[in-house]
Design a protein that fits this description.
Bound molecules: nicotinamide-adenine-dinucleotide
Structural class: alpha/beta
Shape: globular
Largest sheet: 10 strands, mixed
Order of helices and strands: EHEHHEHEEEEHEHEHEHEEHHH
Length: about 325
Amino acid sequence: MKLAVIPGDGIGKEVLPAALSVLDAFGFDMEQIPLEIGYGKWERTGNALTDEDMSIIKDCDCVLFGAITTPPDPNYTSVLLRIRKELDLYANIRPFSPLANVKLPCNNKVFDLVIVRENTEGMYSGVEELHKDVAYTTRVITRKGSERIAQSACAIAKKRKNQITIVHKANVLKSDSFFRDVCRGVANRIGVSFNEMLVDAMAYDIVLRPERYDVLVTTNLFGDILSDVAAAVSGGLGLCPSANIGDRYALFEPIHGSAPDIAGKGIANPIASILSVRMMLQWMGCETEAEILKKAVDSVIARGIVTPDLGGSYSTKGVSEAISKNISVLKTY
Ligand code: NAD
């Protein structure tokens, strides 16, 4: 097993080493290939992600990713979008359910939902034009892209409540009525029941009634935005992991960004990154280790060993060390 390790920028450089130390606590025989990629590299060398970086990544089985800074500069192309496209990581799986003992900002409802976000097209297709007085971003929704994301959502639903919610804005956007129709067809064919929500109403419901939903399937930009809403009601961005899955490769990363406001202070919450390692373990078929990791995280939170975003005073390293120690104890049982 060959793992590309990409810390990226800002707090990515803090949470990724923390996550790796937790992975190391399991003692897997895994070759780790560290790579410098991102805005910092662009500032230093003029290139954020080289073709050679890409071929090294393609020589690995999967990627553990920290976070990157993507400046609002039309001359800069997001490296993450390029990696997702070139590795064809079409399914972005983002689970949200509040962890025990985490104070929630809106309500204390128990919920467990998964956002399945199309990850290679939509508004992030890269089809853009910037003129003096007008700018265009073309939203590309293909049958192939919609079918395979609907299939991914249905496959997840089959292991849960056998139901998906198709999230769209089909009342306004033709591309979304196309997406919705393809999703309906896939769900019918596979035998998964479905309902539908307009994306604006979905954002509202995630805040007020998240317990009504299980698996949501949606397009790229909508999934991106809804994820941050779901993160807020789940206790914060510092807790939410994700998996980017394709047919050949996979990439695991927290859903948060490089958090320049807290970068360099050693206080970023590493749990989102650590739970991304858990998703990687599940992808590898290591269910026992994934379960141990979750128990170790829960127990550390229960003991109040948390970073300032959760009201604690522990450092990134303090939290990850406590989780690693817990794993070493739990492994022996
Ligand atoms: P962000 O996710 O970096 O931060 C939003 C807020 O959440 C900030 O207040 C930050 O301090 C807090 N936060 C995020 N992660 C945290 C953690 N682990 N622990 C504690 N607090 C945490 O979003 P942003 O500020 O809008 O974006 C910053 C940069 O990150 C931008 O350049 C953006 O393009 C990039 N970005 C990258 C990714 C990615 O790498 N996948 C995702 C989103 C944003």
